[in-house]
UniProtKB/TrEMBL annotation:
Family annotation (InterPro entries): ATPase_F1/V1/A1_a/bsu_nucl-bd, P-loop_NTPase, Term_rho
One annotated GO molecular function: ATP-dependent activity, acting on RNA
Designated name of the protein: ATPase F1/V1/A1 complex alpha/beta subunit nucleotide-binding domain-containing protein
GO biological process, one term: DNA-templated transcription termination
Source species taxonomy: unclassified sequences, metagenomes, ecological metagenomes
Pfam families associated with the record: ATP-synt_ab (PF00006)
Domain ATPase F1/V1/A1 complex alpha/beta subunit nucleotide-binding: 10-146
Origin species: marine sediment metagenome
Length: 214
């Protein structure tokens, strides 16, 4: 399905493959991406998931004798960190962007340790919420916990002030109610400017119990 629906190359290793195969595929992909960047190409890697890649390394690499919380070897995280840290913009060259998913709230201490190691290292963090997904509201984004670092470098002062006003509104409300309307507006608009022009009035009346859009 993925190969048919996107204009890009799909490299995969299914869950029933041995960990060595997961690692082999990941390392082939990152090396190819680096070569393309050297050719002044802009490359995007979608990795699902950084958690499973770290698990695979934990099973394959020789043990250091030092085991961290959750049963993860101290040397394990160096390898997925090197993968994730390859993302960069090259002067007079191309760029490599990596979007990696992380598995959370599984009850696994190992998964928690892996997530905490990568938390805060990216330029953008997008959190999904199970509550919206169970209500069949997609994309099931937790807007209060998602965001872009250094967003002031990407947006105008006017756009930035409107985004902060929207965030303040959602923080004061039970965000699950207005979020449906916000997502509908996202689907109908083509860019940030159009979206913000419609939702900028949200913060003007925090006492509204229902939010409607024309």
């Amino acid at each position: 399905d993925m190969q048919r629906s996107i204009k890009g190359e799909v490299a995969f290793s299914t869950f029933d493959e041995p960990p060595k195969n997961h690692i082999r595929v990941a390392e082939l992909v990152i090396e190819k991406a680096k070569r393309l960047v050297e050719q002044k190409r802009d490359v995007v890697i979608l990795l699902d998931s950084i958690t499973r890649l770290a698990r695979a390394y934990n099973l394959v690499i020789p043990t250091s004798g030092k085991i961290l919380s959750g049963g993860i070897d101290a040397n394990t995280l160096h390898h997925p960190k090197r993968f994730f840290g390859a993302a960069r913009k090259v002067e007079e060259g191309g760029s490599l962007t990596i979007l990696a998913t992380a598995i959370v709230e599984t009850g696994s201490k190992m998964d928690e340790v892996i997530f905490e190691e990568f938390k805060g290292t990216g330029n953008m963090e997008l959190r999904l919420t199970r509550e919206l997904a169970e209500r069949r509201i997609f994309p099931a984004i937790d807007m209060n916990r998602s965001g872009t670092r250094k967003e002031e470098l990407l947006l105008s002062d006017n756009e930035l002030s409107m985004i902060w006003a929207l965030r303040n509104y959602l923080n004061r409300q039970n965000y699950k109610e207005p979020i449906e309307a916000v997502i509908e507006v996202m689907k109908k608009t083509e860019n940030n400017k159009q979206f913000l022009e419609i939702v900028s009035h949200l913060g003007k009346d925090s006492n509204k119990k229902e939010v409607t859009f024309q």
